[in-house]
Amino acid sequence: MSSHGTPTPMISRKAEPLKGVAEVPGDKSISHRSLILGAMAVGETQITGLLEGEDVLDTAKAMRALGAEVVRHGDGAWSVHGVGVGGFGEPDDVIDCGNSGTGVRLIMGAVATHPFAVTFTGDASLRSRPMGRVTEPLSLFGTTSFGRAGGRLPLTMVGAESPVPVRYTTPVPSAQVKSAVLLAGLNAPGVTVVTEKEATRDHTERMLAGFGAEVTVEDTAEGRVISLVGQPELKPQVIAVPRDPSSAAFPVCAALIVPGSDVLVPGIGLNPTRAGLFTTLREMGADLTYENEREEGGEPVADLRARFSPDMKGIEVPAERAASMIDEYPVLSVVASFAEGITRCPGVKELRVKESDRIDAMAVGLRACGVEVDEGEDWFSVKGLGPEGVPGGARAEARLDHRIAMSFLICGMAAKQPVEVDDAGPIATSFPIFMDLMGGLGAKLETAG
Ligand code: S3P
């Protein structure tokens, strides 16, 4: 069921040992960027492995509305005929990015240096999220934005007629903000420079270089400094999207907590800006190994093998690791509930402005499942029940947040009593084959009444 439709309650009961190979879909972050940069190149970009989740499909629609030709072929491959940097045309309707913060913020950046107005909206979750973090730096290029209170969607952005290049230091660790500024800088003359104090996922920088832009990255005392020379001619690319480590997190974590499990999750990118969860799990004592380590498309890749790990211990997750596992804290908090002792996660206030307030959503749902959770503005801790086990027997609210919905369904696979989720619809935004894939491994997921 679509995240825009009626709620689909789901129930997850104690699973059989999870066994088999879990081929998770394409990386969401890389999929958005492939479509957007493909649309800004001159000629045809070919993409295989694109994530066909609602978030990415909304970005494909937006690229069509801006003038690019985006086609899905019968074999599942996609092609994008780009219009070139500066070549977008005024869309004749509102751009609806659905549930996707990445989609809307990156597209705002991409259109900001074009001389026309675009109105953006999204679902109830996206309309509640802060957009000032993007409209503020984009105003430095010469854009004006009119949104609802707090800069929220629906929002109209009037693009800059004569954009100027920008130097900007991101005030929050956010790849979306960094990427919005870089994408805007593409159509500004001169050099746009973004500094981030903490490294966030670097797919935009890598892909810009792949498309032939002049981009340099320097590690300095102030942080990572990314410089982009504006108004390049981007060359179309052939892109094989790697599988998503953030989706891999779900079968991996499920295997660690369901007795008797042994699951292989092949072809997962271990880009250090994304792989923080796997390091954390190994520090907790998870039986998680990297097999067949290799390089693909310039990225480190491995097959992940996760086996039931009854002896995991709670740890303090270093705050400086937060950006590299920001989307994985919900499912980590489930694993932490089954480990022994306290897992403490500092430096995570960004979790409060995701598709939902993820600290609150997990704390409320886990407490209902019988787990003690403590929280502050930018931290939370989970008191793991270890061998005693997690009682479960609760209904958790997904709050239009795919990662919250999936995390509680994973919890139900190992808890003593089933765990229900009030709406599994949002899972289609990032992991449309989640139910079939987990069911194929041995999970017991059913639609609830
Ligand atoms: C993303 C960046 C992260 C992440 C999101 C995807 C991206 O958001 O949570 O799911 O593709 O750039 P922030 O940049 O706001 O941290």
Q: How does the helix and strand content classify structurally?
A: alpha+beta
The distinct ligands, each listed once, are: shikimate-3-phosphate
Name of the top-level CATH class of the largest domain? Alpha Beta
Compute the CA-based radius of gyration.
21 Å
Name the CATH superfamily assignment of the largest domain. Enolpyruvate transferase domain
Report the average pLDDT across residues: 97
Shape: globular
CATH topology group of the largest domain: UDP-n-acetylglucosamine1-carboxyvinyl-transferase, Chain
- Specify the biggest β-sheet: 4 strands, mixed
How are strands sequenced across the largest beta sheet?
A: 21-22-1-23
Number of strands: 23
Distance between the termini: 15 Å
CATH architecture of the largest domain: Alpha-beta prism
Q: Tell me what portion of residues adopts beta-strand conformation.
A: 25-35%
Total domains:
2
Total helical segments? 13
The residue ranges in which pLDDT falls below 50 over 5 or more consecutive positions are none
Helicity, as a percent range: 25-40%
Describe this structure in words.
There is one protein chain. By secondary structure, the chain is of the alpha+beta class. It has two domains: 10-26 and 242-447, UDP-n-acetylglucosamine1-carboxyvinyl-transferase, Chain (Alpha-beta prism), CATH 3.65.10; 28-228, UDP-n-acetylglucosamine1-carboxyvinyl-transferase, Chain (Alpha-beta prism), CATH 3.65.10. 29% of the residues lie in helices and 29% in strands. It has 13 helices and 23 strands. It has a four-stranded mixed sheet with strand order 21-22-1-23. A four-stranded mixed sheet has the order 2-15-17-16. A four-stranded mixed sheet has the order 4-5-3-14, covered by helices on one side. A hairpin with a 5-residue loop joins β4 and β5. α1 (28-39) packs parallel to α2 (54-65), α2 runs parallel beside α3 (101-112) and α5 (132-139) packs parallel to α6. The radius of gyration is 21 Å and the shape is globular. Bound molecules: shikimate-3-phosphate. The site of shikimate-3-phosphate has 11 residues, from α6.
